[in-house]
C-alpha cells in the first residue's frame, strides 16, 4: 500500500523510512502512518467529485483516527471534519481546525457537548432524535443563535457488512425512522423552530462496504424523502450527507472499488433521484478509506508456543489493546517480517497478543518466514479504528504514533508512560479508625 516498499537491506520501508530504524528509535509496538497516502486518499475523493461536476463536500470522520496532527492534515487538505464527542471536538479545536468546518454527530450528545459546540462556533449539527432536537433548539435560542442542522435518518438499507457495523437498517439506535414518518415529523418541528435552520438530511448505511447498490438504494429513499418534504413542508433539501463506509483492502480477499467508482455511482444515483435542477450539495464522510491502509503497526516478537499438530502461536508485545478488531469483528489482517521482508515464506503461525485473554489474537494463520524471537512483525492496514479504539486493558500502555513522509518521521503521539496509567488514580481518603 502507498509508499511501502522493501529496501536494499531487505527491510520494510514506509514513507522513505526504514521500519527497523523506526523500531530502534521509537520502540514497539508502534503505529506508523503514511502521511502521503492519507493525503492522496483525500485528494482522490475530491478529484472524483470534481469530475462528476456535482456540488459536494468531503468530510473526514474523526472516529477512525483522531490526533492533533491528523486534524491538521485534514485542515490542510481542505476537508470538513465530523466529530462525535467533546473529545474529538476538543482535539480538532486544539489543532486549530476552523470550527465552521466541523460538524457534530452522535445519538446522545450531552447538553454540555452541545453547549461547547455552539460556543466554539461549530458549523453544523447532525440531529439524531427528538430529544436532541428540542435540546439544541433551546440551547441555541438561549444564546440567540441559529444552529444549522441536518436530520439523520435510517433509510432502511442494509449494507452487506459485519452485523455490528451496519447502521442504515430500521432497527438501529441511530437517527429518525423513515418508514414510520418520524423524519417528516422531525423536519416539521425543525422548520418551526426559530433557532434552527434545517439544511437537509443524513444517512449512513454501514462500514467496510464493497458495493455501490446500498448507496444507490439509500439515495433513492433520500430523494423520495426530499420530494415529500418539498411538497408537504415546502422544504428545499440543500445538503444530502450520505455518510461514509467505503471499504478497504485488509487482505487479498477484500475487493473494494476505487474511490472514483463509489463517487460515480453516487453521482449517477443523485442525478437520477433528484433531477439535474434539484440536486443538493452531496456530502460524504469517509473515515476508514482515508486512513485505514495508511497505517502499519510494528511489533516485536517475543515468546512462541507450539500446540503439536494444531498450530504455532507467536506472541507480540501488543495485542487487543492496540488492535481490538480481530477479537471484536473477526477482522482479518496480513503481516510480514519487517526486518526480513525478502525472505521466503516458510511457516504458518497465529499471532497472539500479550494480554490475559484467549481471544487476544491479532491474526489467525499468517504465512511468514521462519519466525524468531526479536523479529519485527508489521501488521498492515491498521490506520483506522486501531489507535482510536485502543485501550489500557491489563494496564498495557498505548503505543506511540509516528507520521512518516519523504524519508522523515515525526512523533505525533508519545508512547504512554507507566505514570500516565496512574495519572488519574486517587487513593480514598479515609478517616483513621480507632485502634481496637
Ligand atoms: N459516518 C457515520 C455516521 C458513521 O457512523 C461512520 C462510522 C462513518 C461516517 C465512517 O465510516 P467509515 O468510512 O470509516 O466506514 N469500529 C468499527 C467501525 C465502526 C464505524 C462506525 N461508524 C471497525 O473497526 O470496523
From TrEMBL:
Pyridoxal 5'-phosphate binds at residues 245, 285-288, 385. Pfam families: Orn_Arg_deC_N. Keywords: Amino-acid biosynthesis, Decarboxylase, Lyase, Lysine biosynthesis, Pyridoxal phosphate. Residues 37-291 form the Orn/DAP/Arg decarboxylase 2 N-terminal domain. One of its GO terms (molecular function) is diaminopimelate decarboxylase activity. It catalyses: meso-2,6-diaminopimelate + H(+) = L-lysine + CO2. Belongs to the Orn/Lys/Arg decarboxylase class-II family. LysA subfamily. Homodimer. Specifically catalyzes the decarboxylation of meso-diaminopimelate (meso-DAP) to L-lysine. PANTHER family: DIAMINOPIMELATE DECARBOXYLASE (PTHR43727), GROUP IV DECARBOXYLASE (PTHR43727:SF2). This is Diaminopimelate decarboxylase.
